[in-house]
Amino acid sequence: MGQETEFKYLIDTTKISILGLPCKNISQWYLSVDPARCVRVRQAGMQAYITIKGKSTVNAEGAQTCPEFEYDIPYDDSIELKEMAIGQIINKNRVFVPGPDGRTWEVDFFYGLHLGLVIAECEVRAGYSPVLPDWVTKNVSGDPIYSNLWLSQNPF
After folding, report:
1. Which residues belong to the active site?
2. How many CB atoms lie under 10 A from the CB of residue 90?
3. Residue ranges of the domains in the chain?
4. What's the pTM?
5. CATH placement of domain 3-153
6. Among 25-34, 56-65, 75-84, whose mean pLDDT is lowest?
7. Nearest residue to 54 (alpha-carbon basis) of 64, 68, 41
8. CB–CB of 91/112 below 8 Å?
């Protein structure tokens, strides 16, 4: 079984420099919005994925953990699956930022319906807490209103 453990934080955008860092443009949407078994399709460039996630919990370290299964799918299939989207399509630019402990942070700058929202994620192994960069402000790992699933149903 796949398992995802990550921390999610709000950040102070005045303290982070992303100039010259690698980034991806991402569009994603949901085919199932049941929090116990959601199904997401994501396009990143010309690559496409389908992801099935189980119910999330917050562990003792404050990270969000859930079963996760992700698979590559043909890009043309993702275009057809977009017609089945439930709720809004989420659009964001993801920037890959090195953290103080060498771990890569994924910083998502949302646009469209969620313009202005910026969330940093750091995937970890269970039982580990990352060293926080100075631009991290609030841990929102367990707050459902910052989940992509919530955002697909509710504009920021």
Report:
1. 30
2. 25
3. 3-153
4. 0.93
5. 2.40.320.10
6. 56-65
7. 68
8. yes
